[in-house]
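Predict structure. Chain length: 443.
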Amino acid sequence: MTDLDYKHSVLDPLSESFCAAKWYNATIWLGSGMSTSCHHPPAHLVDINKVTTNPKLLHNTPQKKADRLAMQGGLRPAGCEYCWKIEDMGRDAVSDRVYKSKIYPIKALNDAYRTPADADVDLRTLEIAFDRTCQFACSYCNPAFSSTWVKDIKRNGPYSDLVSDGRNHFTHTHESSQLYRYGETNPYVEAFFQWWESDLHRTLQELRITGGEPLMSADTWKLIDWFKTNAGKSTTRLAINSNLGTDVDITRLLENTKNIEIDLYTSNEAVGTQAEYIRDGLVWDDWANNVERLLDSGQFRGIHVMCTINALCLDSLDQLLETMLQWKTEYGKEALSFTLNILRFPSFQSPLVLPDHLRTGYKDKLQAWLYANRTNEFLHEHEINHLQRLIDYLDVVKTPHSDAFDMPKLLNDFKQFFDQYDTRRNKQFDTAFPALADWYNSL
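Prediction complete.
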């Protein structure tokens, strides 16, 4: 069954807005006590007074229960706008609610649809972040998710003259994202481990650790140790996100996961100097060598590259796709996969800020790559679909999201941000992106 057939025959008969992630999936930032159903909707705060006595409320929040009720009635929760925008493009575009749902048995979807919206549901897949420690400060990230970004703001002050940054990503250190100091007891982390020890390790299908940089967090290693010392106690699949940067201890990772089934997720969306510009702190050769080292080890169920599609990465995205296809050809179709996730916030870094001639040129280049490789046996269906929907997105969609400012304000912020970014990070936009230089200098 194709992804589109699945949408029409499995999801839509339940409800044309139904998404199993609202019931069975969560992303929870334990450093801030924030929770959401996937990486698209805005996060919301978990009630600390209630979660200490009922850890399941880390997931089963009033907001999610309200969204479940809406989906059961065929209504579209506003926080899920990313998927509605994809589906409203037409062209049989497949949104992430399909991918977030089809990982579960059809019976589980039917059970979710019939479950009272206010019930506490057992998670099946969970992504958690223990804290925001990270040695990178990527351009599209912010202090809420990176301690290095915090250092930037403390050292240089807030970014100035940004008028479209409604979430104030770059104006302060986001202390609410790290409510407890390092070494201090965090009741959200305690609630998670309480839930994990009591029953979560029995019901959860996959546990994915994100950050920050998870491999720089002591709680990540604590959880890895639990899997080592409790072999056979849990059937939960373990997955870890890592930027695979120079400072990540790959040797320790390999030594401590020898007998644990594990997936490794990493991020990149460009190559060479351009990747290093976008993901400040990354050294391209070190990242590529670390990917190959993990592939060579054969210890991982899969290596998954998550590409955050922004205005800058399109210049060399096709080269990254080619590199990943070479890895897949060498190590096997299942050894490595990729996803293309279109950035919406901060909206001034969306690919949609590019002028028509550049956006069309990149669209055509990606279309040519897809045309040449669509029948390649090493590409998964979802990889082909992700690339096709990006091509359609560049062709059809005009604004990053419904709350986006008008284009002059987005362009103002693009120029203001990267001028300041260059000064703070000792970078040079013109050198990294010569194809964008004339447009950039005209802003």
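Summary: Residues 152 and 310 are 21 Å apart (CA to CA).
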